[in-house]
Specification:
The protein is elongated. 32% of the residues lie in helices and 29% in strands. The mean pLDDT is 97. By secondary structure, the protein is an alpha+beta fold.
């Protein structure tokens, strides 16, 4: 069983990496990019029967800093 966790900074939290990417794209001639938000994807290989609630606990305790980040879980 696999799960993917998508972690992004919450709206309103400064994203310096995203801003650096936006600036670099402009330098390369991609002028239409008005904003970039950068996040991360975490893929988990889980034992069969692992619940989504367990994955949510993993996010709350380790995978995401819930003060400044939000997350979304996809179980496959």
């Amino acid at each position: 069983m696999k799960a993917r966790v998508y972690v992004m900074l919450k709206n309103g939290v400064l994203d310096p990496q995203g801003e650096a990417v936006r600036h670099a794209l402009g330098t390369l001639g991609f002028d239409g990019v008005e904003g970039v938000r950068q996040g991360k994807v975490i893929e988990l290989d889980l034992a069969d029967g692992t619940s989504e609630a367990t994955v949510e606990q993993m996010c709350e305790k380790l995978l995401a800093n819930t003060v400044i980040e939000s997350y979304r879980i996809e179980v496959q």
